[in-house]
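TASK: fixed-backbone design
INPUT:
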């Protein structure tokens, strides 16, 4: 396991881009009651967060660890590769194409996706399939809010997400380690669940490139690879999407990928995990500790087979 170096945010993302993105996000139409807070946030180069929700009392993983220990294979397979090689990713302007079983197919500019949204801080646990975990304060808005704007048709049963594919900016995609572009998916009811968010920031700051700028998915009861980064396409479909890791190795990476200590990875146990920054191991919680909120989504399913 490689040790990630400390890299200041100013070196990871060009400062002019870093500030422009904050200026944009400070003007996306947050509630009027938060206007003063938004101005203070801009002065401090922070996002205007209106509502904070914590789903855990666990200590937060340090910002430096969150931003320098990542899986983002488009920039390399080592944990420190994204923080070293993602700095030149161009994240503005950014467009997300909406396709498939919906009445409002369109190419959405990120600014339009964010208009009228209230940015929240959601503190979520994250469990990675390699048996390590983090606690991250994400800043974003419910995915359900955006899906409703797209007006799904009755045929829509799943949501497919696609990551940017650009070999010029993403050196990792020159390797055949995975089939590119990266694709992930959720069942529609999972996508509409209030815990599922589209994140544009973390720790009150614009999400760094290596963490999936400018828009990424966060689904806290699933393994980390379900949180697709740098989203450029969202498709509503009537069939289960052919997701990247399931295509690569269906025996190890199922479509649902719910955190389940009863289902081991074929090469290691999933019964325990190690929180980044800690040395002790802790028991892995079913659905990553969110069972009370999400277990009903899977009533009648055999989660040892449909994993």
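OUTPUT:
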């Amino acid at each position: 396991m490689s040790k990630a170096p400390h890299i200041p945010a100013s070196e990871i993302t060009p400062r002019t881009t870093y500030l422009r993105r904050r200026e944009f996000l400070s003007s996306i139409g947050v509630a009027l009651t938060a206007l003063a807070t938004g101005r203070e946030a801009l002065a401090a180069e922070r996002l205007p967060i209106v509502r904070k929700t914590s789903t855990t009392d666990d200590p937060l993983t340090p910002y430096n660890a969150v931003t320098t220990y990542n899986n983002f294979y488009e920039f390399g397979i080592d944990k420190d590769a994204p923080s070293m090689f993602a700095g030149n990713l161009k994240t503005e302007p950014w467009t997300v194409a909406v396709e498939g079983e919906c009445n409002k197919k369109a190419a959405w500019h990120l600014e339009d996706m964010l208009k009228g949204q209230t940015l929240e801080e959601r503190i979520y646990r994250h469990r990675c399939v390699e048996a390590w975990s983090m606690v991250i304060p994400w800043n974003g808005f419910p995915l359900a809010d955006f899906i409703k704007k797209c007006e799904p048709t009755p045929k829509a049963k799943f949501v497919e997400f696609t990551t940017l594919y650009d070999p010029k900016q993403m050196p990792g995609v020159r390797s055949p380690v995975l089939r590119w572009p990266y694709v992930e998916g959720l069942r529609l009811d999972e996508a509409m669940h209030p815990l599922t968010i589209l994140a544009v920031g973390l720790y009150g700051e614009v999400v760094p490139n290596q963490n999936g700028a400018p828009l990424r998915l966060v689904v806290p009861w699933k393994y980390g690879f379900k949180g697709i980064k740098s989203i450029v396409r969202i498709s509503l479909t009537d069939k289960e999407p052919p997701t990247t890791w399931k295509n690569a190795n269906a025996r190890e990476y199922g479509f649902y990928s719910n955190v389940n200590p009863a289902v081991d990875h074929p090469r290691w146990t999933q019964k325990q995990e190690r929180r980044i920054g800690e040395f002790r191991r802790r028991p892995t919680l079913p659905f990553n500790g969110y069972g009370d909120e999400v277990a009903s989504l899977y009533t009648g399913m055999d989660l040892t087979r449909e994993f």
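COMMENT: The CA atoms of residues 7 and 185 lie 32 Å apart.
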